[in-house]
Specification:
Blueprint lengths: L2 H12 L5 E3 H8 L3 H14 L8 E3 L7 H8 L4 E3 H7 L9 E5 L6 E5 L5 E5 L9 E4 L2 E5 L1 H14 L5 H8 L4 H14 L3 H13 L12
Parallel strand pairs: 4-6
Antiparallel strand pairs: 1-2, 3-4, 5-6, 7-8
Helix pairs in contact: 1-3, 5-6, 6-8, 8-9
Length: about 220
């Protein structure tokens, strides 16, 4: 039996419900050296990319969703960007990458979480505290407008996107979900950058959005 198969069998037997597997627990349970475990993980990652660090790795066989996994990894952050917009019913597509805003946890560049999902962890983008919705035991999630502001600041403005690129993204969003809150931010936010960005978003929104499509 190859080491990758041995590793899978051990996890399925002894930690079937744990979202993450301890490196030390596997080494102790199987009596493996660090080199043998690293080889087994590398073999698995060739066909099933997944999050791993020096201490733990995602249990690919546990019945856990991506939001549960990132709650374990970045417990002090909140979900935002495209993922939150989709959760609020604002974005027409379900993204595969989760954006976590966390000013305590070190930033994490985009990387695989599981074969289906990836995530990134970025520092807080504005001086004003984010507006978000508490969801114990999962991470809080940004309100619709906050998620759009985070997306615009991080994915559009910081990458020097064009107005046409911004309008193209907004064309796939439902303005009704975020408009009232965006107007309030544009009028009353104490963070000048957030206030100006809210105004830019409102002005850049296409007159007739591709989505949602009104039933006939």
């Amino acid at each position: 039996m190859n080491t990758a198969k041995q590793l899978e069998d051990w996890v399925r037997t002894f930690s079937p419900h744990s979202p993450f597997i301890s490196v030390q627990a596997v080494r102790h349970g199987l009596g493996w050296s660090p080199e043998t475990l690293n080889q087994a993980l590398a073999t698995l990652a060739q066909t099933m990319p997944f999050y791993a660090d020096h201490h733990q790795w995602v249990n690919l066989w546990a019945p856990m969703g991506p939001e549960e996994l990132v709650t374990y990894l970045c417990p002090d952050g909140y979900l935002s960007g495209e993922w939150a917009l989709s959760w609020h019913g604002c974005l027409s597509q379900q993204p595969t990458r989760l954006m976590i805003v966390d000013n305590i946890h070190p930033a994490i560049s985009p990387r695989a979480l599981t074969p289906q999902w990836s995530f990134e962890c970025i520092p807080a983008l504005f001086d004003e505290p984010a507006t978000r919705i508490s969801r114990p035991p999962l991470l809080p999630i940004a309100t619709g407008a906050q998620a759009l502001l985070d997306w615009a600041e991080y994915r559009w403005r910081r990458h020097q996107g064009t107005r046409s690129q911004l309008a193209n993204f907004l064309d796939d969003c439902d303005r009704d979900v975020v408009e009232e809150e965006l107007v309030a931010v544009a009028q009353t936010s104490i963070d000048g950058r957030k206030q100006r960005l809210a105004g830019i978003l409102l002005n850049a929104w296409p007159g007739e959005s591709r989505w949602p499509i009104t039933p006939r």
